[in-house]
Design a protein that fits this description.
By secondary structure, the chain is an alpha+beta fold. 19% of the residues lie in helices and 33% in strands. It has 2 domains: 62 residues, Winged helix-like DNA-binding domain superfamily/Winged helix DNA-binding domain (Arc Repressor Mutant, subunit A); 117 residues, Umud Fragment, subunit A. Strands 3, 4, 5, 6, 7, 8, 9, 10 and 11 form a 9-stranded mixed sheet that branches. Strand 9 and strand 10 form a beta hairpin. The radius of gyration is 20 Å and the shape is elongated.
Length: 196
């Protein structure tokens, strides 16, 4: 899914996702048109554009033949981020995770955690952090930050107006006086237990 949806397409696509989750079948073009006050022909054009961008597929000429693409509603696992000493970030897509209603595959991604510098924040080695892409953060947010060509997960802090990155493990020192860029804010942590 390299192409971005327009705002109108995003609203239509979100409606289709929500409709499928609630009704276990896709809406008809007429139902989409009724929801947005659009003619069926306009809806057909918008749905076709969404399909071409890879978010939907269509089964033949069935009235309710729309299907969410395999990656629609799934967030990409982009690689690993270190919660410890900085290491080069891996940005290859390793797979996908179910996103749910509150996560968008265009605004969120997942990273697998390596290291133990965030253990007191409940983020352990092997966890998946779900990250909302944004370049700013509030005091105390747990962020993924880029320092040169390396990425790390830490708590965003300010002291005397100067930002720094703080670990949640007393065995590690804060990252201060080093330029960094916020890549996103951690919004969720997922963990798989051995044997599950």
């Amino acid at each position: 899914m390299n192409s971005e949806l327009t705002p109108k397409q995003e609203r239509i696509f979100q409606f289709i996702q929500e409709y499928v989750e609630e009704n276990h079948l896709p809406p008809s073009l007429r139902e989409i048109g009724k929801r947005f006050g659009l003619a069926v022909g306009t809806v057909q054009d918008q749905v076709e554009a969404i399909r071409r961008k890879g978010f939907l597929s269509k089964e033949g000429a069935r009235a309710r033949g729309l299907k969410l693409s395999w990656a629609a509603g799934q967030i990409p696992i982009l690689g690993r981020v270190h919660a410890g000493p900085l290491h080069a970030a891996i940005e290859n897509v390793e797979g996908h995770l179910p996103g749910g209603q509150h996560l968008s595959p265009r605004r969120h991604f997942a990273l697998r955690v390596r290291g133990d510098s965030m253990i007191e924040a409940g983020i352990l080695e092997g966890d998946m952090v779900i990250v909302r892409q944004q370049e700013t953060a509030e005091e105390g947010d747990i962020v993924v930050a880029q320092v040169e060509d390396e990425a790390t997960v830490k708590r965003f802090r300010r002291k005397d107006g100067r930002p720094f990155l703080e670990p949640a493990n007393p065995n590690y020192s804060p990252i201060k006086d080093v330029p960094f860029q916020i890549v996103g804010v951690v919004v969720e942590v997922r963990r798989h237990y051995k044997g599950s």
